[in-house]
Amino acid sequence: MALTRAQRCLVRVLRFFSGAFLTLLSLALRVSALLSWKAKGARGSRPAWRTVPPPDQPLLLLPAGELARRIRRRELKCVDLLETYIERIKQVNPLINAIVKDRFEAALQEAQVVDQLLSDGQEDEESLQKKFPLLGIPVTVKEAFALYGVVPNDGQFPDAVGHRINFLCTGPMCRYAEDMELLLRVMAGPNISKLKLDDPVSLQKIKFYSMEHDGGSIFLLPVDKEILQAHRKTVAHLETDLGVEVENVAISKMKYSFQIWSVMMSSKSSDNQENQTFTDLLGDHGKPVWPSWELVKWMMRLSSHTFPAIALGITEKLTKYNSKANAKLASMAQSLQTEMVELLGENGVFLYPSHPVLAPKHHAPLGMPFNFAYTAIFNILGLPVTQCPLGLSKDGLPLGIQVVAGPHNDHLTLAVARYLEKAFGGWVPPGQS
């Protein structure tokens, strides 16, 4: 699916202006930091650059499953565990601003109820594990999700209505691979019956496939060398340690991951109604917005919208007015899904980079805002994916790889995740290198 000459030209223009913007922004930030340092230096103080300190409490480093077992066995008080986590949050949140809303007091009251329930001794350990597998475990919830008792954060785009619900895939995020299945069983609810989590997995019998990059999309950055090295190291370890053959594949349609995602997210709903576009949301109470004009205003610092928002709006316009290309991309999405399902079968996994670049600095994604397509494409294809950490880069940034399987074969990706954790060390506490 080739882009038209006009589309290629527009992409080059966007890249040029975004690159120029990032260069100027970087220079401005350096000058600002230098002036700030001199001003503080004149007052006899220097700026303190701080990083997140490593966890200093052993409880913070235990898997959720182990903590839940200790609570059920009355070996650990829920209140004590919660207070340990609250103290940690208060220690690091001023540095990273990860928690935007807390409910510490309410959580402590709930923890006391849990401890009272356990002290009454009316439920044995086996019964508690079956009814409340995560009893007493502190959890955090992303602010974009509706949570009982908390004002919802409306305005997330794309919205999950109609067929888009199938593209909104939310899974557990945890530090240890052993906790993935535990959390997945809880989050899946009645749909857990569709999975095969109780099926035994022989890693030596899995068919492994590998692809190091998307094939060269003009919308995405090339894969970083350190990510490639980690990918190849993983493949080599699988072949050496398990004695399996990892087959390198070149799936040409992956090059169009972003275009496929964009078209599928903006396609008509099942009742043939047009979905609300991102450009519609940019308007103020129905006032029309022209993304191309906003781009001109943005370059003159007159637009009230961000560059990624404008770029997405322009992309929507390009796809909307090219019905023939849209039809081809929609067909390509179905063809790619069929190709992947046939390739993976019931006993195959696909190794793919989690992201083309290492964790970027602030504002860096402005220059290439569509790198998320490396993960988003699998939401469109409806395939289960487990993201696996592979240690840290030379600069202390996380490395990772995606493990993809056929529909409802999450047990394969989870088994590979547990193996890779043992092989490469898994999650590394912050502040370490």
TrEMBL record:
It holds the Pfam family Amidase. GO terms for cellular component: endomembrane system. InterPro entries: Amidase_dom, AS_sf, FAAH2. Signal peptide: none annotated. Gene3D superfamilies: Amidase signature (AS) domain (3.90.1300.10). GO terms for molecular function: hydrolase activity. It comes from the Eukaryota. Keywords: Hydrolase. Residues 148-414 form the Amidase domain. This is Fatty-acid amide hydrolase 2. It comes from Thamnophis sirtalis.
